[in-house]
């Protein structure tokens, strides 16, 4: 099924990765959101559990091995074109994640990856939903050890 103008909503996951009081953000290299900062994540594959999907996506995009924990947010991301047609529709599940291994490196689907402090959330043009879920992550795990 196509991501653009899909026949039904697509299921995606995101990883809110908090380490040593910083959150991981990535710059998207592909549409939608090309060039924008976000959290690592992507689509769930057929037969894949949600927690496995978020761990896979974070690893693929950043080189970090994570252990998904609690669900921080569940929401719809719906974008309509100028004619009002549904261009994108994702149902997204964002998990709080803890790093268990790997080295940070921008990889598939992202052009950059970096750690930010809570006071830097407003500096990267993050979408309001992303800002909100990052703030939730910082509240739940403000000073998690590496």
Name some characteristics of this structure.
single chain; 146 residues; alpha+beta; Nucleoside Triphosphate Pyrophosphohydrolase; 2 helices; 7 strands; globular; hydrolase; hydrolase activity; NUDIX_hydrolase-like_dom_sf
What does this structure look like?
This protein is an alpha+beta fold and 146 residues long. The chain has a single domain (10-140), classed as Nucleoside Triphosphate Pyrophosphohydrolase (Alpha-Beta Complex). It is 18% helix and 43% strand. Strands 1, 2, 3, 4, 5, 6 and 7 form a 7-stranded mixed β-sheet that branches. It is globular, with a radius of gyration of 15 Å. The mean pLDDT is 93.
Shape: globular
Number of helices: 2
> Could you spell the SSE succession in H and E letters?
EEEEHEEEH
User: What is the fold-level CATH name, i.e. the topology?
Assistant: Nucleoside Triphosphate Pyrophosphohydrolase
Over the alpha carbons, how many angstroms does the gyration radius reach? 15 Å
Helix content: 10-25%
Q: Please, what is the oligomeric state?
A: single chain
Return the CATH class: Alpha Beta
How far is the first residue's CA from the last residue's CA?
Answer: 39 Å
| Residue share in β-strands | 35-45%
Largest sheet: 7 strands, mixed
Total number of β-strand segments? 7
Average pLDDT rating:
93
CATH architecture label: Alpha-Beta Complex
Number of domains as seen in the coordinates: 1
């Amino acid at each position: 099924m196509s991501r653009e103008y899909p026949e039904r909503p697509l299921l995606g996951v995101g990883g809110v990765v908090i380490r040593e009081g910083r959150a991981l953000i990535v710059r998207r290299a592909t549409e939608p959101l090309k060039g924008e900062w976000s959290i690592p994540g992507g689509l769930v594959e057929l037969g894949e559990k949600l927690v496995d999907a978020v761990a896979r996506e974070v690893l693929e995009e950043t080189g970090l091995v994570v252990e998904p924990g609690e669900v921080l947010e569940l929401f719809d991301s719906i974008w309509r074109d100028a004619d009002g047609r549904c261009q994108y529709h994702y149902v997204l599940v964002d998990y709080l994640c803890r790093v268990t291994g790997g080295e940070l490196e921008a990889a598939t689907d992202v052009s950059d990856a970096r750690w930010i402090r809570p006071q830097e959330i407003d500096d990267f043009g993050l979408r309001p939903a992303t800002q909100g879920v990052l703030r939730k992550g910082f509240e739940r795990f403000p000073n998690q050890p590496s």
